Amino acid sequence: QQQYQQQYQQQPQQPQGEGRKRSGSDAKKEKKARVVTPDEDGKNTPRFGDQSGSGSSGGKSTSFSLSKGKQNPRSPSKGHLTHSKDVPSQPLPPSAKEKESKEQKKKPKSTGSILKKVKHDSVAKDLSIEPRQQATETKTAGSAEDPLSNVTLERLVEALTNEKTLDLQLRLAFFLTYKRFTTPFQLLSLLIARYKNEASEQLSNEQLKARKLRVVSIIKYWMEECNDDIFDSPDALQCLTNFFSYVEGEAEPTGKLLIKLFEKEKSQRQPKQAKPDDCPPLNLAWDSFDEEEVSIALTQYEYNLFSAIPLDQLLYWNQKERNTHCTAIYKFIDLSNWVSSWVTSELVSKFKRRDRVRLFEKFISLAEHLLDLQNFSGCMAVLAGIGNSSFWRMKLTRSEAGEGYLESYEKMKTRLTSKSNYSAYRSYLKGCTPPSIPYLGIYLKEITFIDDGNSDSQYGLINFYKWKLMASVVEEVKFYQTTKYLLTPRASFGKAKDSIVFGENCQDEWQFYSHLVEPKDAEAAIEQLYHLYQDNKAQLESYMGGAAG
Length: 549
What we know:
Blueprint: H1 2-10, H2 24-32, E1 35-38, E2 44-47, E3 64-66, E4 81-83, H3 96-106, H4 111-115, H5 120-126, E5 150-151, H6 153-160, H7 168-177, H8 184-196, H9 205-231, H10 234-250, H11 253-267, H12 291-307, H13 311-315, H14 322-325, H15 327-348, H16 353-372, H17 376-386, H18 389-392, H19 395-399, H20 403-415, H21 419-430, H22 440-453, E6 457-458, E7 461-463, H23 464-482, H24 493-498, H25 506-517, H26 522-548
Antiparallel strand pairs: 1-2, 3-4, 5-7, 6-7
Helix pairs in contact: 6-8, 7-23, 8-9, 8-10, 9-11, 12-16, 15-16, 15-17, 15-25, 16-17, 16-20, 22-23
């Protein structure tokens, strides 16, 4: 053993990176002697005997080396694997590259080093955001980040009448939706309590004066925007009258202005005499009606119904009481259904194909005029009548229409399609300047979705997050109600509409007419007509025989 160690120490060490030239057999032997050990990063990297690797499990290390120079006495051949316990070996010092790699592994990876090769524009495109756009904090329903998510009514009134700040969005959302979670009397009582400082808060004279001014401004806004709520509630009206007496005793100038406003609103509530409709009924005869004149008369008539919808009826659309609360909405929907029925009925009841083709083109022209007037509700009603299955099955009729009419029809269908939640229509509507009559069905659908997906209250508190969502829908309807049309129709659409009534079984009648005038099987249609003739003949003979007896 001592002799071997002396020989090993006397053997000259070759510098790193230098060595004898290897023959092909030596390379093959060395390749067989290659050992794979796990690195620190989990990857398997091949190591050679002259760069011994060591494991660190359990505090014990086991290293393998490929002997160089003098042969190990225990090894029968040169280039054999030897265990470190059998032959003492001195590991070579790590190279500069190994030191650098170990230092990099110890350093924590930063976000910049990970994403330095990633194109930010492509990431933004995948995430559907603009490049370099900063993320904004979002607030969810019931979260602690939004102090008004779940609150009491008293807390909402405090926020409304805060003398330091005025939240216009809060005021708008509150008065658009408050009737779903409180009453006018209860709200007015809380406002008066804030005016009188019944909570005995420690306020200076200036703070109390600012508080009173804010309460008066809130009541003033309430009376101007939705005065029917107060005047239609006897309790709230009496409470407001008593408050006026209290204000007169204080001799506050702001209170006196509120009393004058009340008297003005009260005088304007006198029932207005409806102007007599002296216009003659609109001509709706299929072969002579004027598309432009019909579009003007229909738009003015439809806008009058749309603008008369009370906003609180939208809040009750998804409730059980909607049959009694939403009468104005139903009246507006009935008009759309009537227009669709009129279009379909006229199209399928013409026995001559050329008459049906002509009428088909006239209704497409009518839809174009309605779209030009931004009456989207009326335009969709006409398109729905054309698209009714009773008429749409008539391929021969549609194929003979002019190419320009068919292209216009497809263009309107694409613009007003319901695909992707009416995304094309929504984009087009945003680019239009009022007056407009939007498609009411979208808002009713959104209100139903919000109402079903969010509870009215959580843990006994008002879920005002829900009512803010609801208010955003109602606010858009209100926006289109406020801009009036300045049209002067020369004939009354209402009178013409009342003269045409559709029965409950009109769909069955349309299908019958459709298969009769443009049948798939002509012989079957003739047979059906023959049986119908025989039935009517038998009924007539029975009636005549009974009358003679």
